[in-house]
Amino acid sequence: MNDTGKIIAGFLFGSLIGLTTGLLLAPTTGKRARKKIGKKSKNIARQVAGYMGVKSTTQGSSSKRKNGKAPVEA
Known about the structure:
Elements: H1 3-25, H2 30-52
C-alpha cells in the first residue's frame, strides 16, 4: 500500500473512531444512542455499496424485523 492509501485509511479509521466516541459520550440515553449508531451505520453501508455498484443488503430488512430480531433464513 502506498503512502497516500495509508493516509486515507488512517483518516477514515480516525474519523470512524471519533464519530463512535462522540455518539457514545453524548448526553443521550443508551437506547437513543444505539438507534443513532444503527441509522448511521446503515446509511454508511448504503453509501459504500452505492460507490462500489453493489446492491446493499440492508435495504428493506427493517420491514422483516419483529421486536428487533430479523428472521433467520436457512
